[in-house]
Amino acid sequence: MVALLVGGSLALSACGSVSASTALANWATSSNLTSNSAQLTLDARHVLSALATANTTPAQLHTVCGVLDLETLQANSALPTPDSQTTSLLSAAYTDLGDGANECYVAAASSIKRARAAAYLHRAGSELSEALARVAAVGGS
Q: What is the pTM of this model?
């Protein structure tokens, strides 16, 4: 009887186990990581372009920075991932995107704030690239 219970318990636990790579690949698919990352990258490029243009109005900056901030918050809501290193990388990227968007929002008349916002966005781009590479390496996608 004990052997039957132990055997049944092992069989049930085997049914529920998923490899780390499969779990990460499934998470990436269900969270739309690829398309969301592409959209965040495009939004960050729009912000960088607006920041680099001296005659961009405060209203224009508010618009592009607000869009980036909103989409960053939405992407961040998909965390955590099944892989702690990927979660850390994405969290850092999303934090820098959000910080860049917030700095951009108040940067209209300040070249220093514009440069600071751009620096956040450039760093976020590197972090996002590293996170996507991690997902591809571990998740096999």
A: 0.85
